[in-house]
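Q: Hi! First time doing this. I have a protein sequence and I read that you can turn it into a structure. Is that right? Here it is:
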Amino acid sequence: MIVLNTMSAKIKILLFCLTSIAFIGCDRITKQLAKTHLMDKPDISYFHNTIRLEYVENTGAALSLGDNLSRPVSFWLLSILPLALILMLLVYVIKQSKQLNALKLFSLALIFAGGMGNIIDRLFFDRHVTDFMNIGIKNIRTGIFNVADVCITLGAIVLFFAFREREAVPIQQVEP
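A: Yes, that's right. Below is the predicted 3D structure, encoded as structure tokens:
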């Protein structure tokens, strides 16, 4: 098993970038597949409607919050501000790479990739983020989301546990 704490900062940054690129790629591919196979078609349901695939273009944030914002406000609030925050996250990772363990690095890569995945949609597709997954039982359902949203959520959960984990402190032996 590779221990990231003993790796150089450059290797950690490279792993962060490769992980981010892989998850951004997954997000882009799944969104393109959703456009190809779900747009203007009936919903697809699996496991007695527990998982539903349906195509939606969202101009708001999570759960379509801010969907009714004007174009300029939406552009600055939902595209430029998140882009600045994501770039600040990248700078943090670069500066703190020596201190980041594997779990923290992976969770930050997930958050970065998810943020960039949705920002790419907003910047290149006129504020429209492609969402296509919905999970629930009967009338209790999630909002419609995408792989980028899963990355952000999973990254935040893993990061929470990574910061709760205490670093192992070596026990010093006392000589008599």
